[in-house]
Amino acid sequence: MSATQRKASGRARLLPSRGSRAGRGSAGASPSRGTKSKTPAADDKEVQFSNLDKVLYPEAGFTKGQVIDYYLRIAPALLPHLSGRPLTLKRYPNGVDQMFFYEKRCPVHRPAWVSTGKVWSEGNNDYINYCVVEDKPTLAWLANIACLEMHTLLSRLPDTNSPTSMVFDLDPGPPADILDSIRVGLKMRDVLAKLGLKSFAKTSGSKGLHLWVPLNTPVTFERTKQFAHAMALMFEREHPKEALSVMKRDLRKGKVFIDWSQNDEHKTTACVYTMRARSQPTVSCPVTWEELEQTLQKRAPNQLTFKTDDVLARVKEKGDLFAPVLKLKQKLPD
Fold first, then answer.
1. Structural domain total, the chain
2. How far from 28 is each of 23, 31, 265, CA to CA, in Å?
3. pLDDT given at position 304
4. pLDDT tens digits for range 175-195
5. Within this chain, do residues 180 and 233 fall inside the same structural domain, yes or no?
6. Of the residues 160, 182, 210, which one is the last residue of a structural domain?
7. 3-state secondary structure string, the chain?
8. Which residue, among 249, 303, 245, 312, has the nearest Cα to 275 in the 3D structure?
9. What is the pLDDT of residue 10?
10. Structural domain includes residue 14
């Protein structure tokens, strides 16, 4: 970070990304669709920082300034995955061991240059005005208000009825662990491959694994949810000692819950490269299938615990392993 950013509080001027997009909202948009605000033009954007020495991860001694530093440094890989997506903030103003809250509506005290997008909510019978992250200044501002976790919709504005991916959250119930999630994930990868679908994996940043199937073709949430549910039911039927398709805690012991329900137009999922609010500053990190096979073979689950420095080093060495998710076009089989 710069000398300005290292101070306990202060201001920093950050140049906006040249490639940031500003969509124009439509006054006549259907309530089932989203609209995106226009970001005011500016030569630069000023972010005011505060309490940079405040410890947000007590066990690790990891400060707010370090959180901001991570998000600014990971920005080239992260921003393409946030662009155009309504964002739910998960904020920890006093650290990961204290109270937190989710925030769907973009804070009213946001800087004027923060991009937003309106999405119709049936439950609220009104639009929800989400934050949309298009540049480094917005990332820095979010980190400064202690938004540690960034959860995005599976769709992009303005068409919030169409998911760009189908996802599965493989969540192990103790004493099952991430190795069990890998076993299930590898089997799911193989089944999807036989159906002509390429899949990608990332760690949850905790004990689970996220399986991502990019689509980027016209499809509805109804279709992806039906397909994902059918997959989970099939695995539960064919691997009853390993997999579960329902979130019943009394049934989850030693099994991997295949959470298919994330495939919903109103649900958000932890974005790739987001930090997670655990005891250590871990990150939801992309991994290759080869890495997962090696981890399983060596029975070394700790190899899949990635902290901020680990992720920055991986991206520098390997690039963005999740980049294909943004453009790979696939269709669900009929």
1. 2
2. 15, 9, 21
3. 93
4. 999 999 999 999 999 999 999
5. yes
6. 160
7. CCHHHHCCEEEEEECCCCCCCCCCCCCCCCCCCEEECCCCCCCCEEEEEECCCCEEECCCCEEHHHHHHHHHHHHHHHHHHHCCCCEEEEECCCCCCCCCEEECCCCCCCCCCCEEEEEEECCCCEEEEEEECCCHHHHHHHHHCCEEEEEEECEECCEEEEECEEEEEEEECCCCCHHHHHHHHHHHHHHHHHCCCCCEEEECCCCCEEEEEECCCCCCHHHHHHHHHHHHHHHHHHCCCCEECCCCHHHCCCCEEEECCCCCCCCEEECCCCECCCCCCEECCEECHHHHHHHHHHCCHHHHCCEHHHHHHHHHHHCCCCCHHHHCCCCCCC
8. 312
9. 55
10. yes
Alpha carbons 263 and 321: distance in angstroms, whole number: 22
Contact criterion met (CB below 8 Å) for 268 and 165: no
Q: Who's near 55: CB < 8 A, 6+ residues apart?
A: 61, 62, 63, 64, 95
What single-letter amino acid sits at 109? H
CB contact at 8 A, 151 and 275? no
With contact defined as beta carbons under 8 Å apart, do 285 and 203 qualify?
yes
Q: Which domain holds residue 320?
A: 164-327
Which pLDDT score is estimated for 121? 87
The span from the CA of 64 to the CA of 82, in Å, is 21
CA atoms in the 13 A half-sphere facing the CB of 15 = 3
Q: What is the pLDDT of residue 35?
A: 57
Q: Read off the amino acid at residue 97.
A: D
Nearest-CA neighbor of 207 among 153, 252, 263? Answer: 252
Q: Each residue of 102-139: pLDDT tens digit?
A: 999 999 999 999 999 999 988 888 999 999 999 999 99
217-237 exposure pattern, b = at least 16 Cβ within 10 A, e = fewer: eebebebbbebbeebbeebbe
Q: Are residues 197 and 52 in the same domain?
A: no
